[in-house]
From TrEMBL:
<keyword id="KW-0444">Lipid biosynthesis</keyword>
<keyword id="KW-0067">ATP-binding</keyword>
<keyword id="KW-0547">Nucleotide-binding</keyword>
<comment type="similarity">
    <text>Belongs to the diacylglycerol/lipid kinase family.</text>
</comment>
<dbReference type="Pfam" id="PF00781">
    <property type="entry name" value="DAGK_cat"/>
</dbReference>
<keyword id="KW-0808">Transferase</keyword>
<keyword id="KW-0418">Kinase</keyword>
<keyword id="KW-1208">Phospholipid metabolism</keyword>
<protein>
    <submittedName>
        <fullName>Diacylglycerol kinase</fullName>
    </submittedName>
</protein>
<dbReference type="Pfam" id="PF19279">
    <property type="entry name" value="YegS_C"/>
</dbReference>
<feature type="domain" description="DAGKc">
    <location>
        <begin position="1"/>
        <end position="134"/>
    </location>
</feature>
<dbReference type="InterPro" id="IPR017438">
    <property type="entry name" value="ATP-NAD_kinase_N"/>
</dbReference>
<dbReference type="InterPro" id="IPR050187">
    <property type="entry name" value="Lipid_Phosphate_FormReg"/>
</dbReference>
<dbReference type="GO" id="GO:0016301">
    <property type="term" value="F:kinase activity"/>
</dbReference>
<keyword id="KW-0443">Lipid metabolism</keyword>
<dbReference type="InterPro" id="IPR045540">
    <property type="entry name" value="YegS/DAGK_C"/>
</dbReference>
<keyword id="KW-0594">Phospholipid biosynthesis</keyword>
Amino acid sequence: MTCDLTLFVNPTAGRGRGARAAQPAARVLRAAGFGVRTVLGLDADDALRRARAAVAQGTGALIVVGGDGMTSLALQAVAGTGTPLGVVAVGTGNDFARAAGLPVRDPAAAAHRIVEALKGEGAREVDLGRAGDTWFGTVLAAGFDSRVNDRGNRMRRPTGRLRYDLAIVAELAAFRTTPFRVRFDDGPEQLIDATLIAVGNTGSYGGGMRICAGARYDDGVFDVTVVGRCSRTTLLRVFPRVYRGTHLSHPAVTVHRVRSLTLAADGITGYADGEAVGPLPLTVRTVPGALRLLGAA
């Protein structure tokens, strides 16, 4: 392995924590004897192009500094290549880092963990999900929460988290379930009237909502949480339980463990790692050992 590492940085992550976190992380890596170069990019597409170029040129590891969105972008560059990924998690949610037992909002500690892995036990092979050509590390979701994301993304004001809070209120006012056509593995197509369907490579999304609480990224299968037909009142009553993972015992909720599935529904967008993948239908499959992750528990 080369001693040159690539720091893949989102300077705006965590309201500027990305730019600040890159410096102590780089100091730790350089002090350990590694050469470090930084990739920024003019926008997401340009940053991904530069990260892929670094991987193609044989960087020893891609070290992503940012939140779940930036980590998701990094996955597109390293998945299936054998190049290890290090994560310096400084975003607002950090669901992927938490699932891996990595330090959160402590860039020096995260960098030390990466150094220990590079000089010691190496990288751990973990599973990723794939929807079409898009890789994801945490959860792919469709239904109520993707409608909220769609609405929030269309809104110009307000900015920040409040925009999505207002989008939730608006979607609750217009609440309806979605008729999905679902095929689990090689089984028959099923018609499922559902509030939402979440495909978990790991257990949480959205900054700690444990929608697929039992999911593991090293078991070769997804945990698919289906929230079936329920009323607006039931949804509001059950929703707080998502943060503890206790919603899974509710009668409206079922969990399926599968290696692949196809989701279809009219007018629904699939979101993975909080980013839009595209409109349904989508075929989603798990890819065991697709990522070499540094410092994972």
